[in-house]
Write a structure and sequence with these properties.
The protein folds into 2 domains: 9-88, 434 Repressor (Amino-terminal Domain) (Orthogonal Bundle), CATH 1.10.260; 91-130. The chain is built from 7 helices and no strands. It has helices at residues 14-25, 32-39, 43-50, 58-67, 72-78, 91-103, 110-130. Helix 1 (14-25) packs across helix 5 and helix 6 packs antiparallel against helix 7 (110-130). The longest helix is centred in the C-terminal third of the chain and has 21 residues, at 110-130.
Length: 151
Amino acid sequence: MTTFRWKAIEEYSPFCQLLANHMWEQRPPLNPAQLSHLTGIDYSTIYRWFQQKASPDPVHLLRLAQCLPIPVQTLFVAAGYGLTTFPLFSLAEAWEYVINQVRNSQHVGSDAHDDVLVVLDLVREEDLGRRHCGDYAAQQDLRIAPIDESR
């Protein structure tokens, strides 16, 4: 494994600045090898991002959004793939959007409205609980397709 040396934050791309800031805010701070272990993204891929020898592809951005508390929209825009005016939702953000739409809806009677919100909350918790990333190496039952690093 190549030894990693941090540079000044201004020397990184906007995407790497976002990622580095997140890593440094953790207690204790994460290093690239730990980020690799947490996300399942190969260390050499993360290393190339920080050396500006490669840009993250959308599959990696989605993996990061699943494993880190950084919105998918923020990751895609920082990597140069998205626009701030065109929302991209992570699964958790999509659930929040749907629940807020139902909560603000005037088309459902109040009793049915409350029942729908209870059911949505239960289904959301179950769905998000199944998809929690955590420590990638320890997740035997993670239902995410493996990343093909050979591309």
